[in-house]
Amino acid sequence: MANNHQPFESWIFMPGDLTAGDQQALQEHLKECESCQQLAQALQGVESRLRAAPELSPTPGFTARWESRLAADRIRRQRLQTYWVMQVCIGGATFLLLLTVLMVLPSLRLPMPVLLAWGYQIFGVFSYFGSLGKAALTITGTLLGAIPITLWIAILVAMCSLSALWLVAFQRLTAPRRVAQ
Amino acid sequence: MQENESVWLERVQKGDVEAFAFLVEAYQRPVFNLCYRMLGDPHEAEDAAQETFFRAYRSIKRYDNSRPFPTWLLSIAAHYCIDQLRKRRVNTISIDEHDFLEIPDEQPGPATAMWKSFEQERVRELLAELHPTDRAAVVMYYWYDFSYEEIGKALSLTLSAVKSRLHRARRSMADEWIKSQSQIVPKEREYHGEQSPAF
């Protein structure tokens, strides 16, 4: 009998998966075989210990710690994002600076024509913005006469409402929220 | 609970962090317990439980509402713990380190507390011998009453693989039990002293 443990030895570890006939055959075998009996008792001991072991709890404040961790992760992600944006900006600025130096370097030998050209460019920019201002004034004057006063009031009220809505939304999104423990 | 859970899940899927905090509050215990049974160390279990909720929060939009939420959550926890166990061997820890764990209890005396701590250590030792995936299957089967199908889904295993792993785990634990029996009996005698005539 000592070498005839299979399939019983294997069946011991399949509780619930045996047919009624197999179960009976196993019980018969256990009555005769001390080795398998020992295994069955050991499994019984293990299972009773596992089932009796309580469900453990974390230390108090677990949810608060989770919320802190989430907040810290958000900050870390924002910082990482800022870091990469800064890196791209610095890289771009360095590239532009190098490009400018390469363009400017040859003209440094003859500074007077370059300075005159820059002065002309600056004057051109000022003239352009001056023209834009005049055009804007003309359009505004025309609109003031064309649009009735009631429509102006409606536009003003709509803008105030949208500003208030934005402020409320901003406050709700940024206000810290905690769960009562 | 079930109704509240679906309401909270709906809110979380719409981006409400506060609702997810309620889910953390509700499921912290089963998740922590699974992590502790898997890792055998309360500090690592705390980290793993935190990470589980963190991962669940990040992937909540991919959560299939037809699946029970606790099963999904415990599946994340089990996979994370299995990865952790594969990365390194679990360090042996002393019984003293278990002191701060909250074991639900009805005001035990020093002897009862000591005995429970000793029992905890025995359970931890039994689980420590198992392969990480087998250990996860055992924890899900004995603590959470998961069916073979549920364990299979949670651990991405076939039904026959679950049965095979549980069979192997039971065999391994029974062998370990027999081996340690000779060392345990003197300890039991020491803890019980003259209280029990059996010792």
Structure in words:
The complex is a heterodimer of chains A (181) and B (199). Chain A has a domain of 47 residues. The relative contact order of chain A is 0.05. Chain A starts with 7 loop residues before the first helix and ends in a 7-residue tail after the last helix. The model of chain A has no long low-confidence stretch (mean pLDDT 85). Helix content of chain A is 80%, strand content 0%. Chain A is elongated. By secondary structure, chain A is an all-alpha fold. Chain A has 6 helices and no strands. The C terminus of chain B is likely disordered. The longest helix of chain B is centred in the C-terminal third of the chain and has 34 residues. Chain B is globular, with a radius of gyration of 19 Å. Chain B contains 8 helices and no strands. Chain B has 199 residues and is an all-alpha fold. At the A-B interface, helix 3 and helix 4 of A face helix 2, helix 3, helix 5, helix 6 and helix 8 of B.
In brief, what are we looking at here?
With 181 residues, chain A is an all-alpha fold. Helices cover 80% and strands 0% of the residues of chain A. The longest helix of chain A is centred in the middle third of the chain and has 46 residues, at 62-107.
